[in-house]
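Each lists sequence, tokenised fold; shown next:
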Amino acid sequence: MSVCLTASAQQPEGTWSLTPKVGFNFANLAGDINDNSMKFALTIGADAMYQVSPTIGISGGLFYSRQGCEYSGDRSSGLNMLNIPILANFYVYKGLALKTGLQPGFILSANYKQGDTTNKVDAQTLDIGIPFGISYEFSDFVVDARYNLGLSKTNKGNGSVRNSVFQITVGYKIPF
């Protein structure tokens, strides 16, 4: 008697796939800012990918992402973002991909919370970052870990505050 188990990895060359994902961010703000620490927050969205060759895929995504940071003394900064990661996926081993690209994002809303009081903050509309990370695909499930290095400032006015986000997501790849 013989048993055969297969682990599917990247799609065949010339095919498309859609991967709905859910996960979490360890978000922070970097730059001209003090007394801040990481904020644990939600991200949800999907990536569409075209498999260019057996080792290269190009993907574009759309994600709702909660970002910002925590401060000492029951204070926090919150950014509600719509991120559009555009990535090159380099498959270095069956199912294992290294990825990098460009991520434009739109700040939908920004707020500052202290205790029970929340105030709206005037923030930039466009956020640009460079994401890079790694993913592993097994039986159409995808685990993705990436870091997004913010290039543009999120605040208006003096100083420069940028996003700094480590993100982990889990998804299911659907070929089409």
About this structure: Residues 16-175 form a domain with the Porin fold (CATH 2.40.160.20). The CA atoms of residues 75 and 117 lie 9 Å apart.
